[in-house]
Amino acid sequence: MVAINIVDLIGSRVELKKAGKDHKGLCPFHNEKTPSFIVSETKGFYHCFGCGAHGTPISFLMEHDNLDFVTAIKYLAEKVGMEVPLNDSSNLKKENEQAALLEEITKIYESQLNQSSEVKQYLTRRGINEKSIKKFRIGYSPDSWNFLSSPKLLKRFSEKKLFDAGLIVKNEKGNIYDRFRGRVIFPIKSSSNKIIAFGGRNIDEQLPKYINSPETITFNKSHCLYGLSETYEARNKKAAMFLCEGYLDVISLAQIGIMPSVATLGTALTENHVKQIIQRTPKVVFCFDGDEAGKKASLRTVDIVLGFAGGLTEFSFLFLPKGQDPDSIAQTKGKDCFLELAKKSIPLSELMVKIACSEMKNNNAESKSKAISIALTYIQKMRNQLYKDAFITDLADHLKIDKDLIINASNSDTDTFKAMPDKGQSKRSENLFIREAISILVQFPKLANKEIPLDALSKIQAPGTSLLVMILRYIRTADSDITTSMIIEHFRDDDLGKHISKLVSDYVFDDEPIAEKILEDIIKKLSFHGSRSSLAESLAKKFKKQ
Q1: 200 by DSSP, 3-state: which?
Q2: 311 neighbors 51 (Cβ within 8 angstroms)
Q3: How far apart, in whole angstroms, are the C-alpha atoms of residue 77 and residue 86?
Q4: Contact partners, residue 436, CB within 8 Å, separation at least 6
Q5: What is the predicted pLDDT for the residue at 425?
Q6: Quick one: DSSP state of residue 33?
Q7: CB of 56 within 8 A of CB of 69?
Q8: How far apart are CA 329 and CA 320, in angstroms?
Q9: What crossing angle do the helices spanning 348-356 and 385-399 adopt, rounded to 10°?
Q10: Per DSSP, what are the bridge partners of residue 55?
Q11: CA 292, 297, 300 angle in degrees (round to 5)?
């Protein structure tokens, strides 16, 4: 990592200009007109103040170039003339082996599809053409309990590897059988275009209609979006993204040229999904059926996206005619019809006003009060103050009331809380101090050599203390030229790297002397809290003995 110049790496893909000690450019992860993308050569770290994208050279290659971790490592190693030794017992090797297995199984499923006229006819009836079959690598798993688990294939693929990949199932008696039997197979890909799982659909409409691979070392459904690899192109970042419910919705929209289109995989939308979306598009349209189930699903989606509202990605909700979905509309009515419907999608803010006022029977005080109460549940989840203010203005205009009434209502709980004695204030202060201390130490590792009392810090019972101590100890034993990106990557396997990276992007310090002074103050306060906790513990033990 030391030999990697992050400015050279990112500068070969993004136009950067010198801005003080750092470099600045237009963010490659979202559309913007004013540069807010900062690259620090000394820290080996990038951060966008617009969309929040941040990370190291490795994470940049993974996000921007759609490389997986190992490929990104190999790319950087080649740049500096190094070889990458892989530990045989590492998760990386297991992930690569499983991805290679799934690739081979995909080829087998593709071959089986070509041999089945019945399944080909089914896909034709569903309007899926040959080009889409190849693009999405659709296959077929024969209606057999032991196709993959047959002696012939078990000679090629071990039973354990098939089981770990979720391709075969073992019952209570220890007998094994294929998970996907008699189903059309839809390979699920990672953002780096590797097959990581499968989805299967019955062709005879028996239930369950759809099944997915279980979560494995390569597959986490709360992080994956079907169709992202096949329909998204980085060079077309101005296009709106359509989020649908199923595989066939995505494929049918792609066939009529509506891309990118993606779908969640048998799970509700998560924050991880949203983070992937907002890095790739200025607008996302959530597609829902017009029935009650669709309306309920939209309410859950509102709760998830609210924390991201007010950024550079617009959230919009499209309620389709009852009994129709993107697949049926794309197949029967075509592109123009779907795009006309998409024009009627409702922006997030309008939808929330509509929901809040949905039960208003008249304009009396009771009805307006109820509408405001519903709206407050949304307002409390909004992180962007400008968006919050704009929403309150829209709601006040709709209700024909003074917006100060809503502002006062939204602040009342907070004001009451502030007026009350807060026994947890000390604990919250400690948490904030620890987060800032971690961020400063990671951005300026040399400050870890100052006199910081590890014993006192270790005694603080607050989230993050153990991580702070862990980082301090690591920096003190590492090379003197350790950088921000090296620290983050050191903790990548424990998932702590993501947390540390987020702290660095949340608490950015440009001036080292100022950061040093802040760190000194934090350490004094934390040491005081630690000593006080230790004293309280000693007194408690003393009184307990008495």
Answers
A1: strand
A2: yes
A3: 13
A4: 507, 518, 522
A5: 42
A6: S
A7: no
A8: 9
A9: 50
A10: 46
A11: 135
> Which tokens hold the place of 238?
């101005």
**Residues contacting residue 280 through CB under 8 Å, at least 6 positions apart:** 29, 30, 228, 232, 234, 237, 241, 260
150: helix, coil or strand?
Answer: coil
Q: Are 72 and 56 in contact (CB under 8 A)?
A: no
Which two structure tokens, joined as six digits, stand for 488? 């983050």
- The answer, yes or no, to whether residue 494 has pLDDT greater than 70, is no
Q: Is the pLDDT of residue 446 over 70?
A: yes
Cα dihedral sign, 174-178-182-188: positive
Looking up tokens 């799982």 gives: 197
Q: Are 40 and 501 in contact (CB under 8 A)?
A: no
Measured CA to CA, the distance from residue 46 to residue 19 in angstroms comes to: 13
How far CA 109 is from CA of 147, 148, 177, 400, 429, in Å, comes to 11, 10, 16, 61, 57
DSSP 411-463: HHHHHHHHHS--TTHHHHHHHHHHHHHHHHHHH-GGGGGS---HHHHHT--ST
Q: Could you write out the three-class secondary structure of 50-64?
A: CCCCEECHHHHHHHH
454's CB contacts (< 8 A; 6+ apart) are 469, 472, 473
320: β partners: 289
Three-class secondary structure assignment of 338-399: HHHHHCCCEEHHHHHHHHHCCCCCCCCHHHHHHHHHHHHHHHCCCCCHHHHHHHHHHHHHHH
Beta-bridge mates of residue 314 = 283
Per-residue pLDDT at 493 exceeds 70: no
134 exposure class (CB count in 10 Å sphere: 0-12, 13-18, 19+): exposed
Read off the amino acid at residue 324: Q
- Write the pLDDT tens digit of every residue in 393-440: 999 999 999 999 898 888 764 443 333 334 444 444 567 788 888 999
- DSSP state for residue 213 in the 8-state scheme: P
Q: What is the largest CA-CA distance in the chain?
A: 86
pLDDT of residue 426: 46
Q: How far is CA 534 from the centre of its chain?
A: 40
Q: Above 60 in pLDDT, residue 93?
A: yes
Cis before 208? omega within 30:
yes
Distance CA 462, CA 518 (A): 20
Q: In whole angstroms, what is the distance from residue 298 CA to residue 319 CA?
A: 9
C-alpha span between 27 and 36 (Å, rounded):
7
Q: Which residues contact 117 (CB under 8 A, 6 or more apart)?
A: none
The 195-202 sheet, strands edge to edge: 139-141, 183-189, 195-202, 210-212
For residues 98 and 166, the answer to whether their CB atoms sit within 8 Å is no
Query: pLDDT (tens digit, 9 = 90+) per residue, 43-63?
Result: 899 988 887 788 899 889 887
Q: What length does the chain have? A: 546
